[in-house]
Amino acid sequence: MSSDEVEKVVIIGSGPAGWTAAIYAARANLDPLCCIGIPRQDPAPVLPGGQLMLTTEVENYPGFPEGVTGPDMMQLFQKQAERFGTRILSRDVTSCDFSQRPFTLTLNDGSTVRTESVILATGATANWLGLENELRLATSGGGVSACAVCDGALPLFRDQPLAVVGGGDTAMEEASYLTKFASTVHVIHRRDEFRASQTMTERVLEASNSEVHWNKQVVDVIGDTMIEAVELEDTVTGERSRLEVKGLFIAIGHSPATGFLEGSGITLDDSGYVALEGRNSHTNIEGVFAAGDVADSVYRQAVTAAGMGCSAAIDCERWLADQGVH
To answer: d(Cα 143, Cα 26) in Å, to the nearest integer?
Structure first.
């Protein structure tokens, strides 16, 4: 990139939030530059396109009555953004200097980009157990998922025994949701009590088709092309057992992709998500906006991320206009 060139807006991230922001920014004649990142393993694959690149079937995004794969959806988003003139840079942003405008973004190859405004849309990655077969089946559509709301209603999971790993509110929400579809929901927790709130815990414990496996951890996921069972280890005795299931949902939290913001001055919440100023996309630094899962620890859905991307682009365009940047 030329050190003399100053971008109007740089979008960091390439999931539903990033591409939607790019579409809106491009149609507003902001000539956006989108830093889409580079593939890496952490421990599951982290790919340009975000979490949907690991989702084989998306049935809950409006406009796709027959469903669509996550990678196909992200390819369509990208094509639409490029149609209106979005420029793409296959680089990671490793650090940001927001101390003065134009802002300076440092890339993984050591080069820099200067820009009048930034939209942060780097998302959040699901925390995985890190088991080889878990990750293999998660990336191949073999019945392992990190989002019950996204995948739980799919035909392959209906009326089947399913397992949820975790003990916090997220795990209870996932398990409660799955009780609508599963024959049995097995909640696997490595301790003898949940960390979840009493209300969420009771909802799961009182469900007629739920079963809790206390002091158990998953040490292997069994299955060739589709999950057949999980191998459990008792965290007290070390005894191992096999639990037959047709779906495994990992619910041990998410990690927002905000490491590159260290030292930038951007305010994060206690969980590391970008904090927003009220009901908009503004961060605590003027000219820096955020959208999608990097700023949303609650919904984490493609459609909500896309909506936030739209908001961020509109907020950014209005802010730039106030600064005399057109």
So the answer is: 38
- Looking at residue 145, its amino acid is S
* 37 contacts 13 by C-beta, under 8 angstroms: yes
Would residue 97 show up in a list of annotated catalytic residues for this protein? no
Helix (H, G, I), strand (E, B) or coil at 195: coil
157's enclosing H/E stretch is none
34, 35, 151, 315: the active-site residue: 151
What pLDDT, in 10s, does the model give residues 255-295? 999 999 999 999 999 999 999 988 899 999 999 999 999 99
Half-sphere exposure of 248 (CA within 13 A, CB side): 34
Which domains does the chain possess?
Answer: 6-125+254-322 (3.50.50.60), 128-250 (3.50.50.60)
pTM of the model: 0.87
Q: Can 35 be counted among the known catalytic residues?
A: no
In Å, how far are 5, 37, 107, 150, 173 from 178, measured between CA atoms? 51, 33, 41, 11, 9
Whether residue 138 contacts residue 145, with contact meaning beta carbons closer than 8 Å, is answered with: yes
Per-residue CA distances from 230 to 73, 153, 184, 190, 241 (Å): 31, 21, 15, 14, 8
Active-site option among 34, 96, 150, 316: 150
CB 294 within 8 A of CB 258: yes
Cβ atoms of residues 261 and 91 within 8 Å: no
Which one from 34, 96, 147, 316 is the annotated catalytic residue?
147
147 a catalytic residue: yes
Rounded to whole angstroms, how far apart are CA atoms 27 and 148?
A: 35
Query: If you count them, how many residues does the chain have?
Result: 326
Percent of the chain exceeding pLDDT 90 equals: 85
Measured distance between the N- and C-terminal CA atoms of the chain, rounded to whole angstroms = 21
